[in-house]
Amino acid sequence: MHINKSIAMAIILVVIAIAWIISGQIFNIRTTITHHDDKISDSFTNTLMRVGISKTSASAFIPSIIISGHTEAARIITLKAETAGRVVATPISKGSKVLKGAEIVHIDVSDRNALMDKANSRISHRQIEYNVTSNLVAKGFKAKTALVAIKAELDAAKSERRTIEIDLERTRVRAPIRGVLNDLMVGVGDYLTVGDAVAKIIDLNPLLVVAQISERQAALIEIGMSARVHLSTGAKLTGIVSYISNVADEKTRTFRIEINVDNPASKFGHGFTAEINIDLPSKNSHRISPSIFRREKLGQLGVMIVDKNNQAHFIPITIIGTDDKGTWVSGLPNNTRVIVVGQDMVKEGEIVEPVETSNGTIS
């Protein structure tokens, strides 16, 4: 079929026009998609995790150890009879304060005075014999061996008298220390044998406040540290750490600690419940809320902070004390920005957008 040249030319021009229009639309679509992808990429690149931070600076804090304990007498002594006999007097009543040397119990001397008189007579007789023999030996009328024998008899008589003197002294049971007569176990008319308990004296000055502390606490406390003691009666006392055991209790694995407290009037007795507060050396530390604590996989306790490059980092901490406003910790830099909102969402080394907050929220 023969096609007119003019018609063929028209068809070619129409095809060219359509192809040009289509190629332009495809270019525009590709350009639009490219620009859209670039915007998405830029938007993703510029989006950072926003976290709330709080600036904190280190300040002096005096940590303390609070433990429970009880009071004890410095000494508890049980007096026992050292000679046999019947009780004839108890001059001091139970519960009274006593001075060292005070007579607690008087035992009947029985025939001890008569034995003392006999011993004195024997000594006088032996002394005369010794003096006469000594003169004779000096003049050569007696051998020296005779004088030695008489001297031995004289010494034996004196030893016997001393034994009787000691026995007489033991008929008066006396307080070996100053304290309180806490218990009197005998009365007038009771017969005592050697070793029978007769009284108990307690020394309440100084008063001991004792407690059991853990191994970690024992490493922090030193002899000579001051301590505040709050008794169950409401009384508040001060004292000094005087003793820390070097051997742990086999059952509890704790260490005994003793605090000396002045108690001159013996006002406070043995067995009162006590709360003990021991101040440790001052430390530079930070006071933060425990709600922002974070624990790593290995169990280390710490917080997340933001450095000068806005990178998040986990910093291990150690709790050293608490008060009514928060928890005091060590381990943080002197001045730091702590993450208080979003700390559980960020990773180590992640760049974040820090927003300072004081009320626990970020906008």
TrEMBL record:
Under the heading InterPro entries, the entry gives: Beta-barrel_RND_2, MdtA-like_BSH, RND_pump_MFP
Does the record's keyword annotation contain Kinase? no
Transmembrane regions: 7-27
Q: Which SUPFAM superfamilies match?
A: HlyD-like secretion proteins
Keywords, sorted A to Z: Coiled coil, Membrane, Transmembrane, Transmembrane helix
Q: Which family does it belong to?
A: Belongs to the membrane fusion protein (MFP) (TC 8.A.1) family.
Q: State the protein's name.
A: Efflux transporter, RND family, MFP subunit
Source organism (scientific name): Candidatus Endolissoclinum faulkneri L5
